Description:
- By secondary structure, this protein is mainly alpha-helical.
- It is flat, with a radius of gyration of 18 Å.
- The longest helix is centred in the first third of the chain and has 10 residues, at 14-23.
- Strand 1 and strand 2 (133-137) form a beta hairpin.
- Strands 1-2 form a two-stranded antiparallel ribbon.
- The chain has 8 helices and 2 strands; from the N terminus they run H-H-H-H-H-H-H-H-E-E.
- The termini are far apart.
Amino acid sequence: QTSKKRSHNYFMKPHIRKLFDIHVRPTQKDELQDFMNGPQKQAWNIPDEVTYDSQGGLVFNHLAGDFMKPVITSVENVLDNMNIHVSVYTGDLDLICDTPGTYKWVDGMTYNLKTNFESTERQALYVTAYSSMAAYVQRYQ
């Protein structure tokens, strides 16, 4: 274990460290970190002083209160009863909340305008600093 990872664990409460070690630590592979801090970093023109960390302990500690909590009912309520735009982001390099899981989560929700949303087309999103498609966007209203 590197000193960097130990320093992140230092800030975690014991019960949070246990969650982190069970659910996150096994997904932290050097290959992903090497890729994100090497070829991908260069492709996206990320500055040298910015370093990818596959879910550092400090971030996990701050988000731990929301970890593994179902939010379907809350999001359905927002979609049906509030005048708030909802955005859902997912990344193909996310090892915990993967893209197929996000699609399944969105498809499993029930809300008043679901049919309208499902009838819209998914569109490609391009970023000028990146040579290929960066993401898909699908929206209603």
